[in-house]
């Protein structure tokens, strides 16, 4: 097992790393009644306080014990930008001086939070800013959880809530599988933030073993696959991970997911001018996906200064969509948000790294 496939461990654990059941076990170990774990959980996820000291119905000796046993603050806000369309992008500092990004996107149906699962990324997609500088480390489940809690705290004064989550920020969640799943279980817990499973989407570049594992989790959480090409040769040029897990292996894992869960799968396809956006690419993609319960999300590529790709002209985007739909493949064009604040994955962190 490679070092980056292993969980990241800190000397003093983050309180958000712990499930309710783990907190109950901890209380038992401390000779505290287990109902205290429920009170603690309520302070964390319902009242959303910022310190153990604020947990007024916990005895002072227990609060002191919690303070010495856990780190409470996992993220510090370095900066935030707000777009004209209401999108908010945070750059958060971690305890070891790394930085990550989290985005709140406002829709007419609610507020969505895009979370990050790794510091950087090693997948190496040639059109993405997240991979610049490579992968530094995995996040703990608590560091992922804290992103949603911070977003919810920002929304609390507006009496609004986080209604959906997309795991589409920096990093590959299925290379940080256990932490990602622990995060998901905390998000859907009925005594916590209680976010509906069907309002959560996890996106992967096609880590095939983890795709099979996720299929067997038997959840209602949505699965999205970044493919960005209709064949092996082109996908390997755009996504080096394709040399490890070939395109057909990814498609086979997708078919297995659909067959076992009965759920629709989303394919994310970033359109890059003159590279993967020609009518013949659309036709080939339609043939690959024929008969699958799926949806294609077409994404006009974001300009990254360090890359030389250009955006697909608007009329070509619509033509690509038309060809897919003519072949019976449902396809939509992603609505762009936060374009004026560098809201695409990795862009803000990349700027921060240049300055530090």
Automatic annotation (TrEMBL):
Residues 107-340 form the Radical SAM core domain. S-adenosyl-L-methionine binds at residues 171-172, 203, 226-228, 302. HAMAP family: RNA_methyltr_RlmN. Specifically methylates position 2 of adenine 2503 in 23S rRNA and position 2 of adenine 37 in tRNAs. Signal peptide: none annotated. CDD domains: Radical_SAM. Its main location: cytoplasm. Belongs to the radical SAM superfamily. RlmN family. The active site is at residues 101, 345. It comes from Paenibacillus herberti. It is found in: Cytoplasm. Gene3D superfamilies: 1.10.150.530, Aldolase class I. NCBIfam families: rRNA_mod_RlmN (TIGR00048). Its cofactor is [4Fe-4S] cluster. This is Probable dual-specificity RNA methyltransferase RlmN. Binds 1 [4Fe-4S] cluster. The cluster is coordinated with 3 cysteines and an exchangeable S-adenosyl-L-methionine. GO terms for cellular component: cytoplasm.
